[in-house]
Model the fold of this input.
Amino acid sequence: MNKEKNHLDISSNKHILAKWIASGWLLFFATLALTWWLLPNDMTSEVNSFAARMTFAFSHIFFASLLLFIGFLAVGATRWQIETKDVFASPAASGNKTASINIHNQVHTQFLSNSSEQFIMFSAAIIAATMFLESSYLSIITLMTIMWIFGRLFFWGGYWYTAYHNLPTYPRAIGLGMGLLSTLVLICIAAIGISLHYPSFAFLTETQALITHDKSFAFAGFIIEPQGNINGSNILPIVLFSTIAIITAILAFLPKLAPPVIPMAAICVFGWAWLIFSGAIPIRF
Done:
């Protein structure tokens, strides 16, 4: 009887979690559309040179890092309050005692740790994607940075909600999914750009080569087109990214893994397959 009840509870929790995740995706795309509409159309039209693109990328990374600084201050403030009340509550002196004393410290520490992990991959994705987007579409970097910060804040708020109400991870799963989706968008852009230009990346340091006037590419100039003929095979990056996509899909259906991995895997696998088989990414042997 207990086993049957536990099975029903787990099944019910999964259905509820799926609804929260679906709501998060709807919120993501709604915010995406609204922010895209509010951003000026020509805000990145002059960002053409390599130096300008690097400045553009690192300025966005800096703004995203401010969220970590806020988390650091929050952790420091709560630990200061704990340790001034109990001198033996120091993490160095009492191990995990600090984490068990105050719920504020638990929430802030978990937020800072998780955000730091995501920030590393998000920063790398920003730098890589910035190199391959057409100037007029660089606002996508701004858009994804806003969405990533918004998702992290939603994750933080969701942690507070679940901690105080003693609930599962549903609310913060929305913020987690939004942050991961923002990173995934930039990773996909970088993967497409690398596959198109591999093995020649000379255009990265040439100002004029960053400006493309030919819009015959399938994405209508969304990503910078290769200038001239690239001699060499791009099988290596295509095989690499395809393998990662397949592994992601396999991991999504293994037990005891977070359900948000499943929609991420679907986007990764089907999106990449469409790009390859539609010829949007030409395979050079």
